[in-house]
Amino acid sequence: MHPSKLLCGHAAPFGSYLPTAPSPASVHRRFSSAIVRATDEQTSVVEPAAAEPSSSSLFDGFPFSKGQEVINARAAMAGFVAAVISEVVTQKSVWTQIAGRYSNGDLITRANGTASLLFGAIVVLLSYATLAPYFLKGETNTARSFGPFTPTRERDVGRVAMMGFALLLAVETARGGTPVF
């Protein structure tokens, strides 16, 4: 069947301008000539030995590791507890405390300046804390444990705290900006 008749037996709107697949013979001819050319022009190439890095860079600390995940998990747990306490004390939602409350583009409730400043400072400090394994060469967070606080348990509870904080923000948004607690 002609490609233009594939649309329910009717002629396609583009007529015979539909692309068609190349014939197997032409594909074989193209690839065999490329293979022959590649095998005819082979020369020996000497690869230079890989140079050893002279020093580590700041970006070596960026790939996520277990130590950085434990740091971020601890930050998430502290952030979730701080958000709940802040809501209970001020009776304002997290969004209202940080960014204010708006309706149709008009400011209804101003943001708490101290909360916004503190939120920004904590974000910056925790960003630097993630890089701590780079700056403290011999120190690892995964080797430390104290009683029930093992790095694996902290990581798991931190993941729950991250989801809890995201859920807190989602519920506040769905309820129109009213605090959950």
From TrEMBL:
It is found in: Plastid, Chloroplast. The keyword Hydrolase does not apply. GO terms for cellular component: chloroplast. InterPro entries: Chloroa_b-bind. The chain crosses the membrane at residues 117-136, 157-174. It holds the Pfam family Chloroa_b-bind. This is Uncharacterized protein. It comes from Elliptochloris bilobata.
